[in-house]
Design goal:
Layout: H1 55-99, E1 101-105, E2 120-124, H2 127-130, E3 138-143, H3 159-167, E4 176-185, E5 189-193, E6 196-199, E7 202-203, E8 216-220, E9 225-229, H4 239-242, E10 245-246, E11 250-259
Antiparallel strand pairs: 1-2, 2-11, 3-4, 3-11, 4-9, 5-6, 5-8, 6-7, 9-10
Helix pairs in contact: 1-3
Length: about 270
Amino acid sequence: MKTPHEDREPTEKPPEHVSDNAVASGTGNPPGTERPAGDPRGPGGAPVEGAAPPPRQQEEDGGETTAGKGGRQGFWRGLLETLVILVIAAFVALLLQSFFFKAFMIPSSSMSQTLQIGDRVMVERVSYYFRKPHRGDIIVFRYPPKEPAAMNTRNLFYWPFEQIGETLHLTHRGTTPYVKRVVATEGETVELRKGKLYVNGKKINEKYIVDDGSDFGPVQVPKGMLFAMGDNRPNSRDSRFWGFVPIRSVIGRAVLRWWPLSRFGSPR
């Protein structure tokens, strides 16, 4: 005979819910408070000291650091590139002035009306590497022309350094650039009769001069020399006063008047 309590079905106690995040000791989180893997917070949501930040925060912090370094590196790289460009530009300008073209300003009226005071002219050097000056060329040379400091060296090895040194005002010191017109070259006989120019006994038509009615010569131009005069004959001290111009003292040939713009063009 069964007692009353024996007729009852055995009652099973439902198992307690254990979170997947529970530690081995049995300590778990209350339902609804589960945290994803990698969450550095401890129980109750408090941060755990020394825990690594979440991956997203790591990426953001790392991105800010990289951007900062990249910005500084970009600044110094840009500055270095600018300095390199300036150095290259200065070097190219130095070479151009030393071997190809050089600008000069006209300081006096000795070449008026062809060249006026304050005119800027471009003087090219290349032509005279291959030929000697011709009659009628407007040349720039070093004065006093016969001084050793005015002469170009004959040493081909030293010559490039001398040219660069002149641009840097290190060589040919004590000389002044003069501008005149070549009226006779080596071997020719030059003479002035009442202001009119005769070369080898032949009258030369000079439309560009200011006549002074003077007489000079005749004289023969020695080898390696030039006879040069200003177009404004009454106001020019030239070969009539200080003699011939050595070809070795010539800097170049004036080919372009680039200032003022109203007179832009080739001087004739």
